[in-house]
Structures are given as C-alpha cells and as structure tokens.
Hints:
The protein is of the alpha/beta class. 27% of the residues lie in helices and 16% in strands. It has helices at 25-32, 73-83, 99-105, 121-134, 151-166, and strands spanning 14-18, 58-61, 139-143, 170-174, 184-190, 196-201. Helix 2 (73-83) runs parallel beside helix 4 (121-134). The radius of gyration is 17 Å and the shape is globular.
Amino acid sequence: MFQDLSFDLPSGTALVVTGANGIGKSSLLRTLAGLVALAGGTLWLEQGEADRSPAEHAHYFGHQNAVKAALSVLENLTFWQGFTSPVSASVFGATAMSPEAALDLLGIGHTTDLPAGFLSAGQTRRLALARLLVTPRPIWLMDEPTSALDKASEGQLLDLMNGHLTAGGMIITATHTDLALARTKILHLRTADPVSLHEEDLPA
Ligand SMILES: Nc1ncnc2c1ncn2[C@@H]1O[C@H](COP(=O)(O)OP(=O)(O)OP(=O)(O)O)[C@@H](O)[C@H]1O
C-alpha cells in the first residue's frame, strides 16, 4: 500500500522510479498499467482519448517478455500489433512502424521466421521491445528495461526512449541503471513511519 504518493509528468519527460529492493517500484508500474486496481486516489491523464483509461494509453514493458516460443518472431509481433490498439494524444506525434521495420531496427530482422523460442535472452528482450514501436501509445511503463541487454543494445534502447520523449511521449521506468534520458524527473520511494514518498527533480 502506498501513502502520500503524488507526482505529475509533463509530456516529453521520463519519470525514473528509484528505491530499495521490495519498496514497490514494480507494484507502482503494474498499478499504472491497470494490472492492479487502484485502492484509492486518482490517476489523471490530460489530453488523451477521453473514453479510454490512462492504462489504455500505456505500453507495459515488464520483467516478463510475453513472447510465445512456438510462434515465429514475426507472428509474435504481428499478434501484439493486432492486440494493442493505437492511442493518440494531442501532444504525441509518433507513428506506427511495421513489424518488419521494427525487427530490423532492433537488429533481429534476420530472425523473422524463426520460432521465438530459438532467440537468446537479449534477442527476446528486443522482440518484446519491438511491441512498443508497432503500436503508438503515449506512455511507456518500463520495468528494468535494460535487463538482459548488452551495452550496444542498451545504447539503442536509450535512443528509442529518447525518441519517444522527443515525439511528446512519457516514460515511467523503474531502473537501477543510470539512463541518460533527455528530460528526467525522479520519484524516490522510501519507507518511513508511515511509508512516505517524495518526488524531486534530478540534479543537473
Ligand atoms: N503478487 C504479489 N503478491 C503479494 N505480494 C507481492 C506481490 N508482488 C509483490 N509483492 C510484494 O510487494 C512488495 C513490493 O514489491 P515490488 O516487486 O513492487 O518491489 P520493487 O521495488 O520493484 O523491488 P525490486 O527492486 O526488488 O524489483 C514486496 O514486499 C513484495 O514482496
């Protein structure tokens, strides 16, 4: 249970959620993604689609990759593209990428017809990441997005994240890695008596 948790996030900005193991970073992201119901409080998204919830404006990139091993790499991505409808927001200008282009961009274009179960951990992570590119949604919820990625892939992830911010998107990410994101705010979760949380700007 969170108490005294409050933050706002302008478009084009990333919120980096920090705090000790077990403090609730993943739980916060899962709540924002609509996977856990809000016990109280209000979540408000401005300038999105009025008939959709904030969670429906978001992609959730969690610990698990949601990749079906028996389907081909392309079939996995095509499934997700059909399953997640695009959502617009007035300040968000990203356009959908084709599955083939997204796989090429992420360096796994040569694996298109392979069963996804043949991919390495890092390649599977990149396939999961491709989902965010084939359906434009203004909010990216990213839990430890660098896990299983090598340094080169980490740099590419950073480019994608910064591209999303430049397009007017928002990112909320829990990470133990220092990510050089263009515009960042920090939300540090901490225990106190009672649990208290506060938001602060990232030092320059
Ligand atoms: N499905 C669940 N059922 C019960 N308790 C859970 C569940 N998921 C998480 N918790 C508990 O909620 C608390 C917060 O967990 P959470 O995974 O959100 O922490 P975290 O800050 O992301 O940790 P880490 O840095 O280790 O990933 C922990 O005490 C954990 O045991």
